Structures are given as C-alpha cells and as structure tokens.
Amino acid sequence: MYKIAAAIITSALIVSAVIVFHSRAQRDLAPVDTQPTENVEVRDGVQYIILTARGGYTPEMSTARGDLPTKLVVRTNGTYDCSASLVIGSIGYRKTLPQTGEEVVDLGTPRAHTTLKGTCSMGMYAFSVRFM
Amino acid sequence: MTMHTHTFHVSGTHCASCKVLIEDTLKAEGSVRGASVDLRRETLEVEVVGEEAPEVLAALLTEKVKANGYRVSLERSVAHERDRVLWKAVPLGLGLLVLFFWLQKSGILDIGLGGPVTPPTAFVIGLIASVSSCLAVVGGLVLSLAAKLSRDTAGTTRTFVLFHTGRLIAFAVLGGVLGAIGGAIGVNPTLAGILGLVASTAMLLVGLDLVGVFERRTLTLPSGMFRRFRGVEHGAFAPLTLGFATFFLPCGFTQSMQLSALSSGSFASGSLLLSAFALGTLPMLILLSFGSASFARGTHAPLFFKTAGVVVIGLGLFALLTGLAGLGIIDPLVNL
Prior knowledge:
The complex is a heterodimer. In chain A, 21% of the residues lie in helices and 41% in strands.
C-alpha cells in the first residue's frame, strides 16, 4: 500500500520533470523558417545577430544567412547571472561580459547549413544560431 | 550463575556516537556484563547473566534503547526497514529537486539590478545567488558534507564554522587582490569548470553513499576518500581550505562579482564588494549546514540522510551535465 503510493508519486514527479524539459527540446526541433529571424540584420555587408543575455539568452534560437561575414552582438543589462559568462566552444570564445553593455563577437564567415551553439560557463543556459 | 553470549541485530544506528550510547545504556543494566556494537555489520554482542530465551532478551534490550530510536532483534529486519525509508526518501528528494528547478525556470530570480555594483547590491546579489542554480554546486557540496559528516562522525559545528570562515576569508582577501591588481589576473573559467566537475563527481559519490548503494553491495569507495572525510572533521586545515576553494567554483554570480571587483580599482573596494556578496550567500548556506546537522540528530535521521542523498545525486548530475556542456565537451542537454 505504502510502496504503491510512493511509486505513484515518484513516477508522477519524473514524468512532470521530463515534460518540463522535453517541451523545450521539442520547440528546438520544430522546423524553422529558413528566413532570418527578427534579431538578424545586415549592415554594410556585415550580418549582425543580436542576443540579450539575462537569465538565459533571448532568442534561444535564431536563424541567419550563411556565407556572410557575421558578428554576434550580446547585450547585457544588469546581468549578474551565469548568462554574463559567455562560452562559444566551436570558436574557443570564453569571456565574462560587463554587467551592462554590448559585446561584439566576430564569427568570421559561417558556412551555410551549420549551427553555432553557445552556453554560459556553467552550461545551464544555451542558445543556437542556424545558418541557412 | 552462568554467563551467556548472544549476538543480535541492531537497527537505527546512524552515527558513530550511537555505538557508545547503546553500549553504555545496556551496560547500566545489572544483568548485562558486556555489550559491544559493530556499526558496520549492525550487530550487538551482549554477555548476560541469566537464562532468558534470546527472543525475550531482544525485547528486553529493545525496551532499554527504544527511546533513542534503536531496535534489537534476532532477525535481520534491517534491509526491510531501509527499503521503507528509501521509499519515502525517493519521492521526497525528487519533490525537492522539482521545486528547485521550477524556481530556476520560473524567472523569479532573473532580477536585473541597474547601476554600478555597490556593497549593498552585492549583498542582495549574494542572497539571490544562494538560491540560484549556483546552489546546485556550492549548496550541494555543503549538504553532502553536512549529511556525510553527521552520519559518520560525532560533531559538525566546528567543521562548518571553519568552512564558512574559510569561505568569507577567501572572498575578502581574493576580492581585495582582484581589486588591487586589476585586469592583470582573473579566475580562469576552464579551471573553474574543471573544479566544478570534481565537485559534482564528489557529490554524486557521497549522494550514492547516503542513499545506501554502498551498504547493499560489496561495492565500496576507496577507503582513502573516507579517511579524507575524517580528516575534514578533525583537522582545522581541511574545512578552511574547502571553504576557501569555493571562491573558484563555477557560479555565474560569483564570476560577475569577481569582474566587478577587478574593475573596482583598489584592494579595499574589491574586498568590500566580494565580502558583501559572500555575506549575502551565508544565510542559505548556514541554514543548509546547521539545518542538516540538527535533522541528523533527530528521530527522522535515516529518512533525512536518504532524502539528502537523493537531492545531492540530482544536483550532482545537473552540475556534471551542465559543467560538461560549459566546457564544450558535450552539447547542452539542459536549458533552464
């Protein structure tokens, strides 16, 4: 009797945890428009991808054009949490951003059909940019 | 009068001092000539004068120590009782973990504070940091240490006073150094990441031990590790150093405060900033360390240790996975 109740509670907790984390994963996998997202703009032949870092990165998913010189702009505004500590593994970038300000990261010319992934240094906030 | 030696199983022993308590209580009885508890095997050997049947004797002895939560029996009912406790501890621990991660996801903690960082704001940031995901590493470490120490050894108060002192000294001194030297130095994030992995692995091992994985099987941790824990209790150096080392553990808030100290320009201002931050994290950590110690002495001690084990395993896993992602070794699996 007791075990059954405990087993029900345990499985309910596990299921709810899976749902919470999975819903996000599903959203990440959803088919994305191949059009650049709103946070992407091209000025003087340079593509800028603008992200806000505070309690995570927004937007978490961006789409940009490939084969263009690209810069990532990360804006902080009173950011004290982990998202101020930016890591982009593929280009070996690692820096603690100022609490309020704008950091420009040169991404070179990313190839089309690649994905750039970044996290905070503790790894619990992440973002990705798809190049189309 | 003939002397008889009996061996019984004893359950409810959760600390080193239990052995002494049971032996002393039983030896105070007129008919008991000798009593010896083996904590590892959870057995009790008594020498008694008289002709009572073992069943009767077990009931008599239980009567004497029942008030302290122990039970003397012929059969090994220990495994069964452990299962019962574990069945309570798993949902309880998981519930606490869900609550913790829900708090992280809710966004309540993403409070923005404008303007330059002053010691009062650093204190507030410390308060926030102490319930944030940083708690997974530093708090998890404190919880596992508190539970493990109070189960295996007698006292924890002195150890934790030293630990928290070491932590405050580290933040005051190193904060000052950062302020004085400025941009010349900085805490290497890769080093912080690696330390975080070491801490989360240690948490996982202690968590598994608390839950009781190592008692069931013949599987044991290297004895050196436990001797190290003993060392933490008896020496002053180890807890101080451990507290000191928390300065380098990965935590976004800590890193951000270190950056503020770097640009603050003087030893005094850097030291003041980071001291205020560390003081802000203190209430939660004190609650964790001394709260655990008081639970560990209560009647629900076995439940507390198992629940703490489940929580520590969960936090350790989270810290390990996110730490690996932070170092770029695996793709991020969790996004809060």
